[in-house]
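Help!! Second protein's tokens look totally different from the first
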Amino acid sequence: MENINYQNVIAQLLKTLPEFSRTYKKLLTDFDDDVGQHIIFGELTRFTIRKYKIAAQMQKKDKVRYAAALDVVKKIIKFIEVCLMARDPKVRELAAFSFLENLWQAGKYYNAMKGMLSKGAKTELERIDVWWEHLGEQKAASQS
């Protein structure tokens, strides 16, 4: 993968993950071609969660669909991990705050998906989780 930066991150995403192209095109339509990288990465999180749910549901029913869905999830996670190590701080921010931060939407699959992350990505996610917990504590204290 060429040097990833904020200007080429979406092109790199689509090159790495052609399975996301239809979702990306729908975003362009929905946002009149004016969709930012953070919105795209947020939607990538939801796409990843949907694929993981398909894998979980197909694990015992259909090994081919299970493997295909899980492969997509693994490709996305690998791409996110590349982004987390990028030189460009805006790309690292995208991966952390528009992808990892939205993984809570996985609900009961959150821990399993977190378990698929590299040590560095887990550390970043845990840092985000602590930040949100601290923010919640501050909000509760201000309301009492």
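Here's the second one for comparison:
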Amino acid sequence: MTLRPLLILTATAVLAASAAAQEQVYLRRFADSVAVRIGELGHERMLYYFSPTAYLSVGDELEQEGGAHSEVLLSAGGRVELTGPAHMSVEALDGAGDTLRFTTLSRLAVVAGDRVLNLELPGGIRCEMQETRIDMHIELGRLRIRNTGALPVTIHGMVDLESKPARAQAEGADGVAEITAFEIGRGEEVRIPYFGDVDEVKGRMRTRWNRKAIWHDKRSTVEAQGDRVRVGTQDTGAELSLAGVATRLPPNSGLVVTDRSRRMGGANAEDDKGR
């Protein structure tokens, strides 16, 4: 008679743990090239207008290029809107807080709900927020972050601000302050010097070519020259993605990609996709 309640409690605990382990975020593509990288094997797929949605778990990634526009919905009312080139990975999803890592970004509009949301940004910067909203974008070599919500946002990291908020906690010597943590209140903003994007993520390397990102593993060679890029593989083959479009190369093979937009010319030529 005493075993049945115990079994029910055990089954309930297992189901709760399984649900927590499988927590996901919902992604929707609105425009242009948006790709996702799913699972331990890193399988990539493009999101098209006829199939614009995907679910991301911890370890999964999103990559978009050009004028791409997408939205990520999290538990407890969290939301991230991405515009322009971006590379995001899901680092943590649990009751203690969600963590999203951005190795590349252009413009973000972020809303945090009841759960703490951590944003890991290039340069070792981390934003911690809850029940508030921030807008951020890259502007002339600066990462500009503005609190458009009601509650303060805490920013962590060793950064050199152009204007240091009064509530900053600073460490340093000889009058040179290194900011470790500070808050920005409602309507306040900071401008942090932007030192570029990360060039290696989870064993993959990134090569810039004509304002496009080529992600490839270390088994491949990439040579970018003008309007052409050559990709070569070794005995094991390789995987790569160009502007969010993934492909797999067989062993001992090569690929040449030509950027037609540079040959065509025009004011907007560099913003077009190469083929």
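Reply: Different proteins will give different token patterns, so don't panic. Residues 168 and 182 are 4 Å apart (CA to CA).
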